[in-house]
Amino acid sequence: MLRAAGVGVGDEVVVPAFGNVEVAEAVAMAGALPVFADIDPATYCLDAAAVEASLTSRTAAVVAVHRFGRPADMSPLHAIGRRHGLLVLEQGESEVPYDEIARRRERAAYLDGKLRGVRTPDWGDGHTYQQYVVRVPGNGRPDRDAFARAVRGRGVDCRVPVKTPVHRLPGFRRCVSLPVTERAVDETLALPVDASLTRREMQRIVSACNALGGLLQPAF
């Protein structure tokens, strides 16, 4: 789509650094330079104000990525595109049958009501819970990683959704301040929310997390 729109050498394309490297790679393959903007802390998608602040005379496009099943707020991004004459693209997530989405939402609602010591995700409009991502409060990554190890030790599978932001990866390393992105990388943890989970398995998730109470080591 970037190539078809004439985006190429000498152009800049604004993308998120929180998530997959493939978007930045696609920009580079088109011959353009990926420019990283910060995200909204609730949706984990591009923040419109951060996007506008990152624009230069060379900006040709913005690529928004829907994250974890929570759609990006496209209205302000399209408004920026109209004001500045920019192409605004979206990268969606894989389609999921409606009945599976309904079961995920049911399980997410259960976790929302039962979990303690972690910050549960913002429901938001149209959230399909492709991942159920919580925040582990405390002193950043050491607390989140210790929490994850302890939860796994109690028989609950969980994973870090984004281990390294794209602007810190070789080949895309940028000296840019993205505080919301970097905090999200340090604090987020994806808990199981699969449609196939039983009531007993959901209870195990809650018990494992609530037994830890969030912060596992003191902040210094």
TrEMBL record:
Which keywords accompany this UniProt record? Answer: Aminotransferase, Transferase
InterPro entries (UniProt xref)? DegT/StrS_aminotransferase, PyrdxlP-dep_Trfase, PyrdxlP-dep_Trfase_major, PyrdxlP-dep_Trfase_small
Q: Which GO terms describe its molecular function?
A: transaminase activity
SUPFAM superfamilies per the record? Answer: PLP-dependent transferases
| Stated name of the protein | DegT/DnrJ/EryC1/StrS family aminotransferase
Against Gene3D superfamilies, the record matches this protein to: Aspartate Aminotransferase, domain 1, Type I PLP-dependent aspartate aminotransferase-like (Major domain)
Reading the lineage from the top rank, the first entry is Bacteria
Tell me the organism.
Answer: Streptomyces parvulus
Pfam families membership: DegT_DnrJ_EryC1
